[in-house]
Write a structure and sequence with these properties.
Blueprint lengths: L7 E4 L15 H14 L3 E5 L5 H13 L4 E7 L2 H10 L6 E8 L2 H8 L3 H16 L4 E7 L6 H13 L4 E6 L6 H14 L7 E6 L6 H10 L4 E4 L13 H10 L15 H12 L20 H9 L27 H10 L6 H17 L5 H13 L5 E9 L6 E9 L2 E9 L2 H12 L5 E9 L8 E9 L2 E9 L2 H19 L14
Parallel strand pairs: 1-2, 1-8, 2-3, 3-4, 4-5, 5-6, 6-7, 7-8
Antiparallel strand pairs: 9-10, 10-11, 12-13, 13-14
Helix pairs in contact: 1-2, 1-10, 2-3, 5-6, 7-8, 13-14, 15-16
Amino acid sequence: MSNSNRVKIFDTTLRDGEQSPGAAMNLEEKLKIAEMLDDFGVDVIEAGFPISSNGDFEAVYEIAKLSKRSVICGLARAGVKDIDRAGEALKPAKRARIHTFISTSPVHMKHKLQMEPHQVLEAVIGSVTRARSLVEDVEWSAEDATRTEFEFLCRCVEAAIKSGATTINIPDTVGYAIPSEYGALIASLIAKVPGAEKVTFSTHCHNDLGLAVANSLAGVASGARQVECTINGIGERAGNAALEEIVMALTVRADILPYTTGIETASILRASKLVSNVTGFPIQYNKAIVGKNAFAHESGIHQDGMLKHTQTYEIMTPESVGVSKTSLVLGKLSGRHAFKDKLEAMGYALGGNALEDAFRRFKDLADKKKHVFDEDIVALVDDEIARGLDRIQFVSMRVVAGTFGPQSAELELSIDGQTRLGVARGDGPVDAIFNAIKSLFPHEATLAVFEVHAVTEGTDAQAGVTVRLSEDGKSVTGRSADTDTLVSAAKAYVHALNKLLVKRLKTAPEALTVARG
């Protein structure tokens, strides 16, 4: 293990993060996030699980071609087929890593693997050896390490190091540990395992008890020099350690955590919004670092303190994470130049027709709303960008609703460049709208999620709608925002339907059974 205080950031948003129910991403979305992560300063991008599907293999392969700075990593179970498939997907990468894992805890070995400890130890040696024959950079993980018997964990880690692993990951797979014991575990492994000084130890902590970030920092303080995390903390169950929280904790508390990362912190908010937009998972208002209220002060006492000195209630500057210190409130009298300046300040670079279309939509919105907030502009522009290449385009709609019924919807869509008109009834206006869409574009997808939230406050706020459709085991999420909730619902459904058309081309994942090869 290096004595350097440099901590590597291993981002698994595209692998573990995508395992969040409903967070599946298409290839174009994955490439956009990967490019952002590469520019962002992430050391290692875990791009996917190549053997899980042809779509995941393709994503890892294309991301490997795209990367300029980051190491590109593919996940593999402890089996020859998994490892070889990962190696094949990583061939275009300038710097490639195979991340192979196997469970080591008694409960996992007995009930999941149905293997004896000596068989698991043999699998560790075989998998790391195989991976090292394909790439120089191999990471080995002990799944459910925090519930593993310590002596057996030491034997497995030692075997992985002797077989050629360069990084040893100690996951808190089920979020069971508390910081003091997780830190002690990392320190004990480094102290007791022969060869520990030759490798980098890594943390991978889940948030089931809300301790993922705290455990990760305890691991770093005890000698780990890689942290595995995700943007916005997305991931299975309660999620993973949040990248933005890890990085800013190390930045703000350098007095007791004297470690550095390569992350460009001023891009944190933009990265957070991109992942939120792609997955359709909203960021909670009080989310640390990137939440809407993270740098908001409403209490009179707090406002008075902030006016006298910002450090009375802020331990970091908004600019340090990409939040604008000042808020330019735009309205219906604002001109094109002011609108363009505002977009550039928020990280958008639109030109030509895209700018004109966004400005037109902004003016329409400003006519409907008393105040146009930054969040309104983000929703408006992201909504416009997302629709650019869709086969199905929303054109217009008229809805009849109320207590007397029956509720009906008259809908006009452009499908592959041809305008079509459909009329349908339903149990309520939303049902009528979705039935009208089905009449124009027949499909068998079922509605799994329909969520509505206000983008900003007030009765004239834009309604953000999230729609999730499921078909043959595939799930996609569509989003839209509009001051008319029903229009937003129609656009979100059409957005999801367009993503489903892309998803239909992907091969269904193979069953992720345990590999013993």
